[in-house]
Structure formats: C-alpha cells, structure tokens
Amino acid sequence: MNSYNKMNIKFLSIVSYIGPLFVIGKFSYEKDSDQVNFHYRQGEILFFTMFILVLFSLIFDYIFNFVSESLSIICFLFKIGIGVTWVILSIMGILSAISGSKTHLPIIGVLLERISNKEV
Q: Is residue 100 assigned to a domain?
C-alpha cells in the first residue's frame, strides 16, 4: 500500500489545471494516486483542447484578415470566448481538486471518458 502525502496530492491536483503544469503531476511520485491521475489527465485534455482551438482561431484570423475586417472581428471574439472558457473550466477543475472530488468538467469529461475507454 502506497502512503502518499495528502497535501502533495491536493497540490498536484490543483496545479494540473494551470496550463502546461499538468506535466508536474504526470511525472510525480504520486501519479499513481487516483485523484492525481484523474486531475492531471483532465488538465492535460483541457490544455490540449484549448491549445488546438486557439491555434485554429489564429489560423482563421490570419486567413480572414485578408478577406474582410468583419470576419477578423468575429475571430477575435472567438479567441476571447476560448480564453474565458479556459479560465472558467480551469477554475471549476481547481475547485473540484480543492474539495477532493473527481468531478468531470463539461465536454472535457466526455473526452476523458472516450479516451479512457479506447485505452482499455
């Protein structure tokens, strides 16, 4: 039986939702803990999903900038929406990690379940 430090588990679970810092939980000693494993995987999916959305919005903004100013404004608003969504989902994940529960984030939790089912 592994004896993990509860403060480390809580810290690693919280840090998992702060951008690319999910890597800390992924390579830590406590990575085999159910809570740390759940939160770093959910933080990882959140980071890469939002990163891909930001990348697509930058590409579309670059393309639409030559076509029309109004399309560029729409891309700018889309980027703001992505940023706000990222912050809200990160806060929800951090609150879940603080409380010690394993609550699935909207949309990210569905992706986590699908990826977990494919790995088995």
A: yes
User: What pLDDT does residue 42 have?
Assistant: 92
Domain region containing 46:
6-119
Could you state, in chain order, the average pLDDT of each consecutive group of 10 residues for the chain (120 residues)? 75 90 84 86 92 90 78 85 94 92 87 76
C-alpha count within 13 angstroms, C-beta hemisphere, residue 103: 16
Q: Which 8-state DSSP code applies to residue 105? A: P
Q: Is residue 1 part of a domain?
A: no
Per DSSP, the three-state class of 113 is helix
Cα–Cα distance measured from residue 64 to residue 82, given in angstroms and rounded to the nearest whole number: 18
Question: What whole-number distance in Å separates Cα of residue 93 and Cα of residue 69?
Answer: 36
